[in-house]
Design a protein that fits this description.
It is a single chain. By secondary structure, this protein is an alpha/beta fold. The chain has 2 domains: about 10-250 and about 455-479, Aldehyde Dehydrogenase, Chain A, domain 1 (3-Layer(aba) Sandwich); about 255-445, Aldehyde Dehydrogenase, Chain A, domain 2. The chain has helices at about 45-65, 65-85, 85-95, 100-125, 155-170, 185-195, 210-220, 230-245, 265-275, 300-310, 330-345, 380, 400-405, 420-430, and strands at about 10-15, 15-20, 25-30, 35-40, 125-130, 135-145, 145-150, 175, 205, 220-230, 245-250, 255-260, 290-295, 350, 370, 390-395, 415, 435-440, 450, 455, 460, 470-475. Strands 14-15-16-13-12-17-18 form a 7-stranded mixed β-sheet, sandwiched between helices. Strands 9-8-7-10-11-20 form a 6-stranded mixed β-sheet, with helices on both faces. A hairpin with a 2-residue loop joins strand 5 (about 125-130) and strand 6 (about 135-145). The longest helix has 24 residues, at about 100-125. It is globular and about 70 Å long. The structure holds nicotinamide-adenine-dinucleotide. Nicotinamide-adenine-dinucleotide binds next to helix 7 and helix 8.
């Protein structure tokens, strides 16, 4: 069968769609219908090697360009992506069940991301001469080399942009490995890259699963891995990279706390129930899934959360009125429903939800769920569930709230909600985490993003986003 939007047998290498080495394919299942709707190659080590070699051949010329010329290509990529924005959003929504309104909003970030990184390329100073303690020195900033960008299924294009944007701006060439569930949308990015005039080999895409990713991590010519995904995979990748001292940045899972201060106005908090606590049907790494509520307002908060989540429309992801969709796949459905059962066994109280919605006879839907009477030592309070499930834990003092928030293996997000912004900011400073929102769910792309503890290492975005893609060299001179 010839390639079309949903069926691919080729990989994007050296600006060409080349047949995959083996006939192994990944069947793509629409999470709303449970039916197979498409296919991508399951790339193997031979495919990865071809892509890496194309990236290696392209590296000298690409890294020799003036940074602002690389910025021009990134701006052209933003323009070319923008033309495909609706097509990408529809494809992603079919692949992973993201409600279409959110899928479009997420794709809108992508050209903005590429333009931001283009600006960083414009401002990039590849070398400077400094007076040092022993003479003068030329300090050069050189691209690390070939970058493997490995991403999950929940926000494929923004997460690719966060990696390849700074990598390309810095002068690196890239091999992208999308998640098995969301390989198709990467072909539209490839199409945009060709239209944007990227030289052959600068951007390559190899679809596949874990083995494909592992082949990229292991490839001796790859200098850096930029990874977003689960903590378990991140650990395996970091261990493998350590053996060869490969550069690695890891954006991993989370179990972030949302602290409601005692003066919180719940009607003001309402929009954040979806946007901060359960975005993308809860399948978001920085979701605030542990809500800490003042004990004297505990029942009011749990009732309010339950009522708000019940009223958020859930259903067919292609229908723009829905803000909750199905979970991405059967494994995720089993995992989340397993936690719903575990919560009951641990003694938590289901305030709303707790199972499968009765009006769906197919699709990986689960009910948005609020657990009350939760203590921070329960597994539902400690482990990342990655579904529309929040747990509510009472606290008596702000010190106790901070202690509970920080008593976590993770440290990716966080939130503090109060009409008193300064009071909330003082609490936010005490949270051990890479990001914390104060009455806000939208982190800015021109500020650093990342996690501490089991949520990863390194930062993406922000004015220093190129740093993880650079090697510094000092030429010290007696002059
Ligand atoms: P995953 O870790 O299973 O897979 C992520 C990607 O890594 C996929 O492309 C997969 O094929 C690949 N992969 C898996 N194991 C690998 C290995 N050993 N070597 C090389 N590649 C490997 O995660 P997922 O289920 O796709 O995504 C969900 C997870 O991602 C959640 O835990 C979530 O919190 C996390 N996430 C984090 C962020 C963030 O910025 N911190 C953003 C989104 C998602």
């Amino acid at each position: 069968m010839a390639d079309d939007l949903y069926h691919r047998s080729t990989l994007f290498i050296d600006n060409e769609l080349v047949p995959a080495h083996s006939s192994a394919r990944i069947d793509l299942i629409n999470p709303a219908t449970e039916e197979v709707f498409g296919q991508t190659p399951d790339g193997d080590a031979t495919d990865v090697d071809a892509a890496v070699r194309a990236a290696a051949a392209a590296l000298p010329a690409w890294s020799a360009l003036a940074p602002a010329e690389r910025g021009d290509r990134l701006r052209a990529l933003a323009d070319a992506f923008e033309k495909r924005l609706d097509a990408v959003a529809e494809l992603v929504s079919t692949e992973n069940g993201t409600p279409i309104g959110l899928a479009k909003a997420m794709q809108t970030m992508v050209p903005a991301n590429y333009r931001y990184f283009a600006g960083l390329a414009d401002d990039f100073v590849p070398e400077e001469t400094r007076t040092t303690m022993t003479g003068d020195a030329v300090i050069t900033r050189e691209p690390v080399g070939i970058v493997g960008a490995i991403v999950p299924w929940n926000g494929p294009q923004p997460l690719i942009a966060w990696k390849i944007g700074p990598a390309l701006a810095a002068g690196c060439t890239v091999v992208i490995k999308p998640a098995a569930e969301t390989g198709l949308d990467a072909y539209l990015l490839a199409e945009a890259a060709v239209e944007a005039g990227f030289p052959a080999g600068v951007i390559n895409v190899v679809t596949g699963g874990r083995e494909t990713g592992a082949a990229l991590v292991e490839h001796p010519m790859v200098a850096k891995i930029a990874f977003t995904g689960s903590t378990a995979a991140g650990r395996a990748i970091a261990e493998r990279c350590a053996r060869d001292f490969k550069h690695v940045t890891l954006e991993l899972g989370g179990k972030s706390a949302g602290i409601l201060l005692d003066d919180v106005v719940l009607d003001d908090f309402a929009p954040f129930v979806m946007s901060a606590c359960t975005p993308n049907t809860g399948q978001t790494c920085r979701a605030l899934t542990r809500i800490l509520a003042p004990r004297e307002r505990y029942e009011e908060v749990t009732g309010f959360l339950a009522e708000t989540m019940r009223n958020i429309p859930l259903g067919e992801p292609g229908d723009p009125k829905n803000f909750y969709g199905p979970l991405v796949n059967k494994a995720q459905y089993d995992r989340v429903t397993g936690y719903l059962e575990l919560g009951r066994q641990e003694g938590a109280r289901v305030v709303t939800g707790g199972g499968r919605p009765s009006d769906f006879d197919r699709g990986y839907y689960v009910e948005p769920t609020v657990f009350a009477d939760v203590t921070n030592d329960m597994r539902i309070a400690r482990e990342e569930i990655f579904g529309p499930v929040v747990v509510v834990i009472p606290y008596d003092t702000i010190d106790e709230a901070v202690e509970i928030a920080n008593d976590s293996d993770y440290g990716l997000g966080g939130g503090v909600f109060s009409p008193d912004v300064e009071k909330a900011t003082a609490v936010a400073r005490r949270i051990v985490s890479g990001t914390v929102g104060v009455n806000s769910a939208s982190f800015p792309m021109d500020a650093p993003f990342g996690g501490v503890k089991n949520s990863g290492m390194g930062r993406e975005l922000g004015p220093n986003a190129l740093d993880p893609y650079l090697e510094y060299k000092t030429i010290f001179r007696a002059v």
